[in-house]
# Entry
Amino acid sequence: MDPVRFYSSIIKRNIKRPEKVEKLIVRGLSIAQLYVSLFKDKRLPESLQYLNAFCIKSVRDSLAEPQNSAWVNIFSPTEFLIALGVKPLFTEAYSSFMSGFFIEDDLIDAAEARGISNTLCSYHKTFIGAGELGILKKPRFLITTSTACDANIPTFRYLSNKFGAPLCIIDVPYKYSKEAVEYVKKQLLDLVKVLEEVFKRKPDIDKLREIVRTENRTRALMKEYLNYVGQKSFIPTMTFEMYMLFASHVFIGTGEVLNFYQKLLRDIRNAPEKRGKSVFFVHLPPLFEKNFKEYFNFSEKYHIAASDINYDFLEEIDERDPFGGIAEKLILSSFNGGIDRRASRIRELVEKIKPDGIIQFCHLGCKQTIGGTFVIKNLAAEMGIPFLYLDGDCVDKRNNQEGQNRTRLEAFLEML
Ligand code: SF4
# Structure
C-alpha cells in the first residue's frame, strides 16, 4: 500500500479523536519534511527541492505552535507577522495539505453537517471542518482582507467567533487613490497596535523595513524568472505552481523565500529549452485532478508555464514608508477590484510568456473565477490563444467529473 494512503487510513480511523488526529498530522508533516530533505527527488531542481521542504515545514510549524500562529488569507499583509516572528497559516495551504492526506472529505462533511453551505469553496469548508472537529487548535490571531474572495470574510468571522480569537479584516478599496492608500495605511497601523497587544511583542520599524527590502529584492528576482518562463520547461508538477503561492504571497519578505528565488533563477537559466506545449493557468491549477496529474506532472509533452495568481503584484514597495507601501500593494493587486484588472495582468503575462494555451479550472464555489470566465475567454480569443475552461474542485476530489474532464482536456491538448 502507498505509505501516504496507509497513513491517511490511520488518520481517518481516528477522525473523531481530534487530539490524536492533530498529532498525526503534525507528525506526518515532520516525517514528510525529513523525507524530502534526506531523500531528495532527483527529478527536481535544487530550488524546488528546497521549496518542497520549506512549504511542508511552514505548515507544520504553524500547526505545532498554535499559540504563536495566525490564520490568514493569501493576500494578508503578513510582513507584520514575519516582523514579530509569528507563523502564518493560510487556508489554501492547509486545505491542500489535508487533501494530500486524503481526509478533505471527512473535514468537508463535518463542516456541512454543522450547516455550512455545500456551495462554499472547499478550501474554506475543509478549514472550517477541521475547526469544527477540533483538529485545528485555536490560533492567537486571524487576518483577512476583502480582496478577491467573497468567502474569506464570512469564514474568518465564523472561525474567530467560534474560537474566541481576535480577527482583523482589512478593507481594501477597489480603486487606487491617495485617499485609498491613506485609508488602508490607517488600518495597517491599527493592525500593528492590536498585534502588539495580542503577542506582547513590539514590532520594530527597522525590522519591517528590512522585510520590505527583502521582499523587493525577491520580486526583482521573480520578474527576472518570468523572462525565462516562456523559453524553458521548468515547473514539473502542478503542486509546485501551487507551492509558489507560499513564496509569492504569505512568506515573501523572509530570507528563505529570497534564497529560494536565487536558487530558482539559477535553475531556470540552466533548465532545458522548452519542449512540447506550455499551458498558462488562470487562478489555481487542479493539483489532485487525475487527468491533469496524468497529463502535466513530469510530462515531456505538456508543461505548466505559470498561473496569474502568483504574479498579481510586480511593483516595488516603498521601503521608507512600509505601511503606505504595503497599503499600495494591497490596492494594486490584480486580484483586487474588477475582472478587467485580472484580465490585463493575464494579457501582460501571456504576451511575455507566450504559452501555447490557457486553461481556467473553475473551482467549485469560487464565484470570482467562474464569474470572470467569459472575459478571459474573450481575451484569449482576441490574442489568438486556445482556451479551455473546466469545472471541478481543487480540494474535494469527489467533485471532479473525471470522464468528462478527460474528454475535453484531451481534445484541447490534441488541438495544441
Ligand atoms: S478558490 Fe475562490 S472562493 Fe476559494 S479561497 Fe480562492 S478565491 Fe476564495
